[in-house]
Amino acid sequence: MLYVNVSPDSLNGIVNVNIKGKIDTIGNDILKTKIEPYLEDAVFQKIIINLKDCDFITSVGLGALVGLHKKAEETGKKIIFTELHKNVESIFKITNLYNFFNIE
Predict the structure, then answer these.
(1) What's the topology of domain 2-103?
(2) Of 31, 53, 63, 83, which has the most beta carbons under 10 Å away?
(3) Would you kindly state where each structural domain of the chain is located, as residue ranges?
């Protein structure tokens, strides 16, 4: 199961997202439903996604993250991934997404 906690800060144009669980086929839909509205809202320019409690991502989940990243770039916004769980960091490195994504 995937839990997504979203904390928008409209004053600073930032959305903080904390993810807990696995980004799989079901989690993919939850994630996109929670994040996409902020990509379409002109108030928000940066989405910070904390992955410290996300211990697994399937290929479907990776596809969702890539799609969100591309949509953000197309709209002049930025998605930043922080505090990668060691399993997620390994997946990002194996798939060469570590250098594709903005990671802090």
Answers:
(1) Transcription Regulator spoIIAA (3.30.750)
(2) 31
(3) 2-103
